[in-house]
Amino acid sequence: MPGNLIRRLLLLGALAIIGIISIQSYWLLKTWDLKDKEFDQTVHIMLRHVAERIATFHETELPKTNLIQRQSSNYYAVNVNSAINASVLEDYLYQEMDNHGLSTNFEYAVYDCFSKDLVYGNYCEMGDQTDLQQKSEELTTLDNLEYYFVVRFPSRESFLLSNMNMTLAFAAIAIVSVLFFMYSIWVIVKQKRLSELQRDFINNMTHEFKTPISSIKIAADVLARDPAIQENTRLSNYSKIIIDQNQRLNDQVEKVLNIARLEKDNLELKKEEFDLTAELRNIVENEKIKLKDGQLIYDLLDGPVLINADKLHFTNVITNILDNAVKYSKDKPEVHLSMTQKGNKVQIEITDKGIGIPKEQIKEVFDKFYRVSTGDVHDVKGFGLGLFYVKNISHAHGWVPKLESELGKGTTFTLDILV
Q1: Distance, CA of 109 to CA of 327 (rounded, Å)
Q2: CA dist., res. 403 & res. 414, Å (int)
Q3: Which residues does the chain have with pLDDT short of 70?
Q4: CA–CA distance from 326 to each of 296, 319, 320, 347, 384 (Å)?
Q5: Helix and strand counts by DSSP (H, E) for the chain
Q6: Range of the domain at 279
Q7: Cα(169)–Cα(186) distance, integer angstroms
Q8: Is residue 373 domain-resident?
Q9: DSSP letter (8 states) at residue 392
Q10: Which of 327, 354, 325 is nearest to 338 (CA)?
């Protein structure tokens, strides 16, 4: 994955995380504020009803203003114009709390105008709710009131939170999603770093191989041309083996280097116009020389067919396909290459009668390093890079590679090229 794309993903991911956290924080605060206002309004209504019932009980009138005063977030004072019976007050509080759906614990106290102190009434639990915070050590008195009682809700925060279960659940899901996204980004960055280290190592290793391969080739060619070596059949065979295996090693190194260029996204196609028919004929004839046993048959169009493509990469693509067809064939390979033209499209079809590919593996054969299983026999050589290279070069040219296979009967590879 290109470095610029990773940086864009990180930037967009950071912006997305900041946006999600900001929106979620806003809605949490907004929901808390709404719940707090709703709680305050319900408490005001509930306490007004209690005050009205007390006034009716004592046959007095309530003050016209400042009936209920909120001293803090969970502390309320109720002004009445008569003495208050604590037992009656507690009953009224229980009843009105239940009527208005306030299931939170509360405590109350009544002001004694003679001692000028708040006489603590009780700590009351609603339903099954329990609270670790019990009796308050001190309840604040008010100087501007004469007959009043106070009510405090020590578990107000937990009560509000219990009414925000759905909002908190969504917030938790959002937090988990953000954490998962951050972990995913971390994994991507880590994998990219490891991939870059691996690619750099392979590049350095393969480039280091090029020098000794070239030296071996020069030395082997000199030996092969030496009259003394040519006269000795055994030494002559050894020199040919050295040349063949050195060429094979060089081909594998070139494949790795080509894949490395593809992964760096710096592949530059050097397109030129050439005769497709003539080039296919040359490729097949060269492959025939390498084939010790078996048949390579081709059926090409009579006239020239001009295409605009990278000739070197095109040759490598066809060579890789033919090489796979030969490697995965049985004792005597039988490979057939045909060429047909329909309108502005030329289709190259390469068919073999080899071992075939299981249906479940067909989609994976174009993956890097993937090799079709040959059972317990490991006589097929290679890195599993051939078809990965074919796929990328074909896509770079706008060609469409297709593969059909039947286990035990063979494989057909088609390549559609626009002319």
Answers
A1: 95
A2: 6
A3: 1-3, 114, 127-138, 258-267, 369-384
A4: 9, 11, 10, 21, 15
A5: 10, 12
A6: 271-418
A7: 26
A8: yes
A9: H
A10: 325
Phi and psi, residue 137, nearest 5°: -70, -30
Is 175 among the domain residues? Answer: no
Residues in Cβ contact with 287 at an 8 Å cutoff, skipping those fewer than 6 apart: 296, 319, 322, 323, 326
User: In total, how many domains does the chain have?
Assistant: 3
Please report how the helices 233-263 and 386-397 are oriented relative to each other, as an axis angle in degrees rounded to 10: 50
The reply to whether 13 and 157 lie within a common domain is yes
Alpha-carbon distance values, 141 to 73, 77, 150 (Å): 16, 9, 9
- State the Cα–Cα distance between residues 66 and 110, nearest whole angstrom: 17
* Cα separation, 328 vs 384, whole angstroms: 13
**pTM given for the model:** 0.50
Q: Which of 142, 151, 149, 150 is nearest to 80 (CA)?
A: 149
Segment 55-94, tens digit of pLDDT = 888 888 888 888 888 888 888 999 887 788 888 888 999 9
Dump pLDDT digits (tens) for 362-413: 888 877 766 665 554 445 555 567 788 888 888 888 888 899 988 888 899 9
Angle between helices 3-58 and 86-99 (to 10 degrees): 140
- Give yes or no: residues 251 and 300 share one domain: no
How far apart (Å, rounded) are the C-alpha atoms in residues 401 and 222?
42
Q: Are 8 and 157 contained in the same domain?
A: yes
Q: Of 352, 354, 357, which Cα lies nearest the Cα of 371? A: 357
Give the DSSP per-residue string, 148-198. EEEEE-TTHHHHHHHTTHHHHHHHHHHHHHHHHHHHHHHHHHHHHHHHHHH
Residues 156, 14 share a domain: yes
Quick one: which H or E segment has residue 107? strand 106-112
10 and 128 inside one domain: yes
Phi, psi of 64 (to 5 degrees): -75, -30
From CA 254, how far away is CA 386, in angstroms rounded?
A: 11
Q: Are residues 235 and 366 in the same domain?
A: no
Cα angle: 149, vertex 153, 155; to 5 degrees: 165
Instruction: Give the pLDDT confidence score for residue 261 in this predicted structure.
Output: 65
The domain that holds 290 is classified in CATH as: 3.30.565.10
- In the block, tokens 């971390």 appear at 186
Answer yes or no: do 150 and 211 share one domain.
no
